[in-house]
Design brief:
Layout lengths: L1 H4 L5 E3 L5 E2 L21 E2 L7 E2 L5 H11 L3 E5 L5 E6 H5 L2 H9 L8 H4 L1 E2 L4 E4 H5 L3 H11 L3 E7 L5 E8 H8 L12 H9 L1
Parallel strand pairs: 2-10, 4-5, 8-9
Antiparallel strand pairs: 1-8, 3-10, 5-6, 6-7, 9-10
Length: 198
């Protein structure tokens, strides 16, 4: 198992009114499991984060993802406080239909806030741990958590918790040159190495 070679990284709860960095785009490069974890992290000091408000419709969220070629959006308020995260899996999965059935509303009336993962259920990785980690640690952590995304946080100069980066199995797959998903991750380091070698 990959988790036997790479220890999972410590996760903590995302704090109330944690915020996020904003910046410019940089291209990704090919990596290995032993590469620094930061090589596969979308660094919000260099890549503009895409956010959406909690009262936006799912159609708006889906369009924002398509327009920006991303599979997740941070949900934030007007003060840039993070309220949660919504993914394409949330939008395309069973959650919207459950809301329609439970509340007796139309599909187009379902809001981002109805299906997002709220802030108090989000765990983040610490940027200090990420700086010392390798790509394999991130893959092991995502596998253990059964997730496609992981947020990375640090404190800014004032002590406010800021989301510094995002790990995505889609991006890691592209950079490794091998298909990885939270449910289809190779079970051993040797299996991943074998796939990458081909």
């Amino acid at each position: 198992m990959i988790r036997e070679q790479y220890k999972t990284l410590r996760q903590v709860r995302l704090e109330r009114c944690a915020s996020y960095y904003q910046a410019e785009v940089q291209p990704g490069n090919k990596v290995t499991l032993d590469s620094p974890a930061t090589d596969v992290m979308t660094d919000l000091k260099h890549v503009q984060v895409v956010t959406i408000g909690p009262d936006a419709t799912l159609v708006s969220a889906d369009k924002a993802m398509a327009r920006n070629t991303v599979r997740s959006l941070l949900v934030a308020d007007e003060k840039r406080c993070i309220l949660g995260i919504i993914t394409s899996t949330d939008i395309l999965g069973e959650k919207p239909m459950q809301v329609v059935q439970d509340r007796g509303v139309l599909h187009e009336e379902v809001k981002v806030r109805d299906i997002m993962t709220p802030r108090d259920r989000l765990e983040v990785l610490d940027m200090k741990d990420v700086r010392a980690a390798e790509v394999g640690h991130v893959v092991a952590t995502l596998q253990w958590a059964g997730r496609q995304h992981a947020l990375v946080a640090e404190e800014d100069m004032s002590g406010r918790q800021m989301v510094r980066g995002i790990f995505s199995t889609t991006q890691i797959s592209q950079q490794l040159g091998v298909t990885i998903s939270s449910t289809l991750i190779a079970s051993t380091f040797a299996e991943i190495e074998a796939v990458i070698a081909h």
